[in-house]
Amino acid sequence: MSERKRILLVEDEYMIAEDMAQDLRSLGVEVVGPLPSVERALAAVQAEAELDGAVLDINLKGHMVYPVVDALRERNVPVLFTTGYDAAAIPARYANVERCEKPVTGTRLKAALATTLKLDG
Questions:
Q1: Contact (CB, 8 A) for 48 and 26
Q2: In sequence order, what are the residues at sequence separation of 6 or more whose Cβ sits closer than 8 angstroms to the Cβ of residue 46?
Q3: DSSP 49
Q4: Helix, strand or coil, per DSSP, at residue 6
Q5: By the 8 A CB rule, do 68 and 10 touch?
Q6: Closest Cα partner for 6 from 64, 47, 61, 67?
Q7: Contact 113, 27 (CB under 8 A)
Q8: In CATH terms, is domain 6-115 a member of 3.40.1110.10?
C-alpha cells in the first residue's frame, strides 16, 4: 500500500481476532483493535480521528454490531462484515455491506479490502 490505512477491527473471539489482525498487518494496515464489544467499538469510532475502514463481526456475544455500522456510516467509513450469518439473516438496511463468511482466509480478506474498502495490498 502506498499509504498506511487505519482499519477498525471488531471481533469477540480472541483467536479469530488475532488471526485477522495479523492478516491485516501483513497487508500493511494499521489495526485499531481488535475490539470485542459494541461499546468499545463505539468508543473507538468516537475517539479515532481517522479511520479508513472497518472489519466487523455481526454478533458480539449476543449484541448486534449494527449501532457501530450506523456510527461509521455517519462518518462515511466503509464497512465489511465477517460473519457466519447468511445474507438472509442480515437486516435489509445493511444488505449492501459486503459479507465475508467465517472462517475468513487472508486471501478473501485481502480481496474484500481491495473492493469494499478500496485498499490494495
A1: no
A2: 71
A3: S
A4: strand
A5: yes
A6: 47
A7: yes
A8: no
Residue 55, helix vs strand vs coil: strand
**Which residue, chain included where needed, has cell 501483513?**
26
Conformational region of residue 118, where left means phi above 0, alpha means psi within -120 to 50, and beta covers everything else? left
Using alpha carbons, select from 77, 82, 40, 39 the residue that is nearest to residue 59: 82
The per-residue pLDDT for range 21-31, each reduced to its tens digit, is 999 999 889 99
What are the start-end ranges of the E strands in the chain?
6-10, 30-35, 53-57, 59-60, 63-64, 79-83, 98-101
- pTM, to two decimals: 0.92
Residue bearing cell 485481502: 110
Cα–Cα dist 23/102, whole Å: 14
Tens digits of per-residue pLDDT, 67-110? Answer: 999 999 999 999 999 998 888 889 999 999 999 988 888 888 88
Residue spans per domain, the chain: 6-115
